[in-house]
Amino acid sequence: MPAAVGLSAEILAKYEPVIGLEVHVQLLTATKAFCGCANRFGSAPNTNICPVCLGLPGALPVLNAKAVEFATLAALALHCEVRGRSIFARKNYFYPDLPKGYQISQYDKPIAEHGYIDVPTANGTMKRIGITRLHMEEDAGKSLHDGFADSATRTYLDLNRCGTPLVEIVSEPDIRTPDEAWEYLTRLKEILLYTGVSDCNMEEGSLRCDANVSVRPRGQEKFGTKAEVKNVNSFRFVRAALEYEIERQIELIEAGRHVTQESRLWNAAEGRTFSMRSKEQAHDYRYFPEPDLPPLIVTPEFLAQRRAELPELPEARRARMIAEYELSAKDAATLTASREFADRFEAAARTAKSARRVANLLLSEVGGRVNALGLEQEQSPVSMAGIVLAADLLEEDKISSKQLKQLFDVCFEKGEDFPAVYEREKPEQITDSSALEAMIDEVIAANPKQVEQYRAGKKTVAGFFVGQVMRASKGQANPALLNELVAKKLEG
Ligand SMILES: [Zn+2]
Q1: How far is the CA of 289 from the centre of ligand 1 (A)?
Q2: Taking a C-beta distance cutoff of 8 angstroms, is the pair 176, 18 a contact?
Q3: Å from CA of 161 to ligand 1 middle
């Protein structure tokens, strides 16, 4: 198979990519989907296992109610319709890390269907990506191909993951560009994190993505033959794998050849996909209703409870915060990056005299220093309470913004919170009118040209005088009083 070469923009433009995503998400339940084993990442191999998750003869599964709650919550957050009666099915296949020889999944009657996620597009509008279905299933174990002295000749099995509850979220083939795929995944992860049903940790495999991609000549209705790119472990790689795969398929078609329906693996080191195996069809799995589990009934009461638990979701929260705190879309996105961070900000902002000022300080003064030092927001020495105190002092003109900057510098130099630093170094403020007036007189006398400009109608020059006096006072002039006196002197 030739590697995709750089095709010309004209040739690429002749084709339209069609992308659908399948995302597996591990649910954050304490125990597994059908047994009481701990659902925990990182335990010693083969310690969280029992006859049920190993599928030993005679062992019977019992459905974890918490897994149903989480699956339903995720379904509601993704605007899905939840089915009152869904059916578990056996998906039969052999793999060494699947000792049962089948996976309990859902097939033609999944717990939820017909949802959507809205994603931003290149031209600034929003586009709705459909969600075909969300179904419950269990994870398989893990084959360990590396890390042992004899890894060259042996593969080891860790079955701890067998029976971990999953939801699989399948999108409609509505995605048209690798960027849209990236946006969809980013939004999906954000929504799931807000609901708290998963930690979505991609390094630990809590969120895994397969991408189906095909291309067709623009204007053609019929889909082309698709390839599936399996288990790409970061959103960045999904985008890169899709870019590669789209070019590879167009190149094949342009050369008069055909795209094969198959599963392919992304090799991040080489930046290309490789054929793994021909793609199974659904009938290869011999799905049949799971005889050991009754139909899953979701009652209206159960559904209403989940609906009541649903938090405000990221998109709605951003819209509200933009209005409430007069934020830009970018700042709102920063503040809502995680539900926990947004919660801490809002709890603090509510106690402040000006929530808007808290947002500003958090994003500019504190955020800027945190970024410059390469820290995470949680590692900032200045707490939310510290930012609230700083915002209130500014709001009441008890300190100038210059003094505040100096105090924040001390906080970050010494790793101390703002209230402690403020208490110790409480900056002096000049609130004595006559002292300020004397300073203003001096600055006015030294800058006759600017006085002339002001009196000719250029009122913004007042800012120049305020700045000069503030500097002369080493940032200690009371800002409100200074503004008032400068205006009075210049008018006089
Ligand atoms: Zn078990």
Answers
A1: 21
A2: yes
A3: 9
Answer yes or no: is pLDDT of 220 > 70: yes
How remote is the CA of residue 56 from the centroid of ligand 1, in Å?
10
Q: What is the mean pLDDT of the chain?
A: 90
Inter-axis angle of helices 401-414 and 418-425, to 10 degrees? 120
pLDDT, average across residues 53-58: 92
Measured in angstroms, how far is the CA atom of residue 205 from the centroid of ligand 1? 19
pTM for the structure as a whole? 0.80
Give the three-class secondary structure for 135.
Answer: strand
CB 378 within 8 A of CB 384: no
Indicate the SS3 state at residue 209.
strand
> According to the 3-state scheme, what is the secondary structure of 319-364?
HHHHHHHCCCHHHHHHHCCCHHHHHHHHHHHHHCCCHHHHHHHHHH
Interval between CA 162 and ligand 1 midpoint (Å)? 8
Alpha carbon of 51 to ligand 1 centroid (Å)? 6
Mean pLDDT in residue range 271-288: 80
148: which 2 tokens? Answer: 């042992």
Residue 67 tokens, joined: 């897994």
Q: How far is CA 169 from CA 116, 296, 382, 460, in A?
A: 11, 18, 40, 57
Alpha carbon distance 234, 227 (integer Å): 19
Give 59 Cα–ligand 1 centroid separation in angstroms. 10
What angle, 0 to 180 degrees and rounded to 10, lies between the N-to-C axes of helices 314-325 and 339-351? 30
Q: How far apart are CA 79 and CA 118, in angstroms?
A: 11
CA of 66 to the centre of ligand 1 (A): 16
What is the DSSP-derived secondary structure letter of residue 366? Answer: I
* Ligand 1: centre distance to CA 97 (Å): 14
